What does this fold into?
Amino acid sequence: MTKPKFYLTTAIAYTSTKPHIGNTYEIVLADAIARFKRFEGYDVYFQTGTDEHGEKIELKAKEAAIEPQQYVDNVAAELKSIWDVMNTSYDSFVRTTDKKHEAIVQKIFKKLYDQGDIYKSEYVGLYCTPCESFWTETQAVNGLCPDCGRPVSPKKEESYFFKLSKYQDRLEKYINEHPDFIYPESRKNEMINNFIKPGLQDLCVSRSSFKWGIPVTFDEGHVIYVWIDALTNYITFIGYDPDGSSEQFNKLWPADLQVIGKDIIRFHTIYWPIILMALDLPLPKTVYGHPWLLFDNDKMSKSKGNVLYADDLVKEFGVDRVRYYLLHEIPYANDGSITRELLIEKTNNDLSNILGNLVTRTVSMANKYFDGVVSNPKVTEEADDALIQSVSSLSDEVVQKMNEIKVAEAIDLIINVLKKCNKYIDDTTPWALAKDESKQDRLKTVIYNLIECIRICASLLAPFMPETSEKILNNINAEHTSFEDTKTFGLTADGTKLNNAEIIFERIVEK
Ligand SMILES: [Zn+2]
It folds into this structure.
C-alpha cells in the first residue's frame, strides 16, 4: 500500500537578522507535526527556508559594506544552523535567491500580466529620500522616517498591481465552504469581516525604488516586490512551472498544512489563495496561524534587551528541554511566554519530576528486585484497570489532538498518563510488596504494567523530544515502538532484560 502524502511548510524566514527563540517556535512546531505524521505512516515532505529579497536586506548589506548576496548567504547559513540545533527534520531548506525559483517567479509574473491579473499603475507612498525608502502612514509616525527620523514626503512610483478585487467573492465563498482552510477558526471571521467584506485593495507587486529583487522580465528597472516572489516558494521549489509542472508537484500539491505566524495570516489566507486561483491551482487544505512566544509576556526585541536565542538555551539546557518548553507552553490560539526561570521551573516539574522520575524509579526497581528482567504473571488488581485503559486509548487521543494541531494538548495527554503512573506506584507500594515473599508475582505485574506505560508514552513522545524518547526506549530495551505498537498494551515480551537505570532529566538547580 502506498503511504498517503503529507506536504507541510513553514513560512520562509526573512533574512534581515538572526532569529530569536520566538522566531524558532514555528520550525519546532512544524517539525513536531512532521515527525508525528511520519510516525503515523504518512509520506511527509517538510519544507522550510528563507525569504532573501527586499529593500531592508539591500540596506543591511550596504551598512555591512558587503554584497546583498553575501549578506543573505551569511544569515541563511546562521538560520539553518539554528534549525539544525533544534533537531528539526525538514526535507528541504529553500532560499528565494535560488536561480530556478527566480526563473519560475518571472514566468508566473509574466503569465499573470498576460492574462490581465497584473496591470501597471502608480504607487503612492511616503518617501524618505536619504534612505530611498517608501513607508506607509502607520510606519511613518508623525511624518518621520522610522529609520533615520527625517521627514518623509508623498511620492508616486510606477508599479505593477495585482487585481485582488477580481477574486474577492470567489475567495469569500471558498473560505465559507472550507471550514478547515483557516485555523484557528477565530481568524477566519476576522479575515472575512475585517478585510474581505470591506473590499480588497489591489496589491502592489513591483518596485523600482530598489534593486535587490527578481527583475520583471518585460520592464527594465522594476523588481518583483515580495508577494509573488515569497509566497510562491511553496510551489516553485516542488516543481511548479506554468509551462508544465513536475511529477513531484503533482504528487505534493495542494499542501496539507501551512504553518505560519499569526502576523502574516492575512497574506496567507487572502493574497496567497488569490495568487493560486489566478494560476488555476487548488488551495492548501489548512493554513494555521500560530500564536507568538513572548518574553515574560512582552514582545522580544533587541532594544528592550529581552532577547533569548535558541542556540544559547540549547547549550545551557539541552535541545529537548527547549523543544518541550516551546511545544508544551504555547497554547493553540493564545500567546505563550518564556523566561529562563519559567523554562527551568516547567521542565524540572514535567521532565524531571514526572517523566524522569517515573522511568528511573521503575527501571531501578526492576533491577533491584528482578535483576532487570520483566515478566507479566498477570496477578492483577483493580488499580491496574484504570491505568491500562488510559494508556491503551492514549494513542488515538493524541492523534485527534494532533489532527487539530493542538500540540500542547497532545503532550498534556501523555504527561497525564505519566502522572497516573507515578500515582500507581504510590498506590501499589512496590517496596512493601518486595518484602512479602507471597507478593512476588504481584510485584512483577506492577512493574510490567509500568514498563508498558513507559514504552507507549516514550514512543508517543518521539515527535516532540526525539533524543529523550530514544534514550528511554533504549533504557527499557523496548522492541515494540512503531505507531501501531502504541495502540496495544502488553507487547513487551516476558524475559525482556532492561538496561541499568539512567537519569533522564537531571533537575536544574540555580546557583
Ligand atoms: Zn530615512
User: Anything to note?
Assistant: The mean pLDDT is 95.
